[in-house]
């Protein structure tokens, strides 16, 4: 097994980065580090005194590097491992169908499987919505937000988001014509106690609020929308459809819209272009849905985030979700312009991660000290590590790198 010195780490990072390979699942202990690489193009690494050579090798499955904390310059392996994963994450997402999304929700909320309560997931989903708005349209430039709330769970996400957005410093207007159920009433109560403004629950209430808004959070319908829109939502959706927007633009430019999972009114799998409005930003909860493929990929993708940081690794593997790494403590990760990953590729990746996990150190001391670091905990170090790797790529990683 090769020995690794501190000088090798940036080179290894650069090699992974350059070859766009994926170090997905990392197992680290004070004395051992192992990670799997994306087997679409397996790599072997040869460590040299001052450089590292990477070359394709068919049979290689998991690379192991023996090291010690002393050898990595005092940095903890858990600190190093995530930066590798983040640097090398693949820039592709897998799209799931509406029925897969419902199945995943059911598994998350089954007491016998993952045990979540809907309210917990809604809270995290709503926080992700609020973070997406804040990241895309900060309140110093876009102080007034209209949150359009629908009758299902996505409407609940919207009410949670409205509360967070209030605390983030926005002036929040809520349009919510059909609030029902105990939990939804509690969320409404929380907002009313914060003096959040509720617009009249009809078309004119929506249009007045739209007139004042600098940005709109569209949480009317998610992946359970079916058939032609029914009142009281039909006219409001018309107002958001592009042609109606143009009329509106004669009075004032239409505010940008942030949609969740799928723009409201879009059929979740396919549908006519004329029935759609185009949001500026899309947040996919859990994983992108197949209905938004054309919106977020190709030559003119809208800004795209993934949120809903609550998927256990086992579930991610079961559905081959191939989720990207979330940076640090954030609830969203930006994936704008990422292309589609096929189901086959995603399954392959899931298989590799499971193998990497299975090949974790088995020695009892090591197991006790080891930490399984999912790629999702990785990217806190992303930007400065990426800069460092780019510089290294330009200079230190020389012609010895053959990939
Ligand atoms: N795991 C996660 O990522 C989570 C995501 N969440 C969010 O939940 C939605 C899906 O929630 P769901 O309640 O299943 O569905 P919707 O929010 O899309 O709305 C269903 C309601 O919409 C009504 N509906 C459906 N079609 C129409 C229509 N054509 N016209 C009018 N109204 C319509 C439907 O009414 P029915 O009478 O048909 O029952 C429902 O009332 C997901 O997208 C995420 O945003 C969860 O919050 C947490 C987990």
Automatic annotation (TrEMBL):
Q: Does the record carry Isomerase as a key word?
A: yes
Give the Enzyme Commission number: 5.1.99.6
| The keyword Isomerase belongs to this UniProt entry's keyword annotation | yes
Q: Which UniProt keywords apply?
A: Isomerase, Metal-binding, NAD, NADP, Nucleotide-binding, Potassium
Identify the GO cellular component terms for this protein: mitochondrion
Reaction it catalyzes: (6R)-NADHX = (6S)-NADHX; (6R)-NADPHX = (6S)-NADPHX
Give the protein's recorded name. NAD(P)H-hydrate epimerase
| Annotated source species | Ceraceosorus guamensis
């Amino acid at each position: 097994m090769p020995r690794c010195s501190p000088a090798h780490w940036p080179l290894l990072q650069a090699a992974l980065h350059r070859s766009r390979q994926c170090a997905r699942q990392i197992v680290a202990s004070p004395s051992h580090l192992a990670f799997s690489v994306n087997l679409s193009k397996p790599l072997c690494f040869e460590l040299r005194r001052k450089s590292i050579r990477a070359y394709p090798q068919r049979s290689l499955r998991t690379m192991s590097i023996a090291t010690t904390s002393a050898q990595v310059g005092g940095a903890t392996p858990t600190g190093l491992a995530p930066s590798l994963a983040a640097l090398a994450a693949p820039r592709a997402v897998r799209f799931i169908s509406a029925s897969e999304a419902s199945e995943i929700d059911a598994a998350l909320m089954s007491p016998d499987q993952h045990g979540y309560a809907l309210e917990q997931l809604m809270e995290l989903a709503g926080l992700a919505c609020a973070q997406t708005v804040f990241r895309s349209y900060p309140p110093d430039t876009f102080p007034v937000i209209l949150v359009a709330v629908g009758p299902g769970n996505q409407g609940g996400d919207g009410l949670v988001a409205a509360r967070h957005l209030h605390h983030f410093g926005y002036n929040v207007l809520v349009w919510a014509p059909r609030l029902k159920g105990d939990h939804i009433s509690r969320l409404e109560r929380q907002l009313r106690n914060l003096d959040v403004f509720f617009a009249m629950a009809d078309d004119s209430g929506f249009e007045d609020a739209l007139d004042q808004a600098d940005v709109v959070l569209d949480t009317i319908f998610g992946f359970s929308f079916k058939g032609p829109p029914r009142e009281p939502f039909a006219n409001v959706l018309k107002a958001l459809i592009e042609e109606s927007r143009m009329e509106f633009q004669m009075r004032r430019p239409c505010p940008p819209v942030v949609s969740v999972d799928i723009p409201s009114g879009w059929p979740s799998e396919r549908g006519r272009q004329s029935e759609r409005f185009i949001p500026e930003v899309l947040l996919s909860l859990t994983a992108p849905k197949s209905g938004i493929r054309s919106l977020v990929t190709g030559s003119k993708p809208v800004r795209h985030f993934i949120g809903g940081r609550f998927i256990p690794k086992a579930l991610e593997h079961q559905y081959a979700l191939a989720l990207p790494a979330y940076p640090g403590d954030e609830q969203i990760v930006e994936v704008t312009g990422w292309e589609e990953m096929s189901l086959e590729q995603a399954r392959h990746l899931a298989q590799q991660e499971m193998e990497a996990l299975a090949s974790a150190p088995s020695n009892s001391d090591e197991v006790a000290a080891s930490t399984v670091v999912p790629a999702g905990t990785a990217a806190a170090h992303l930007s400065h590590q990426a800069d460092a790797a780019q510089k290294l790529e330009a200079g230190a990683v020389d012609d010895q790198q053959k990939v």
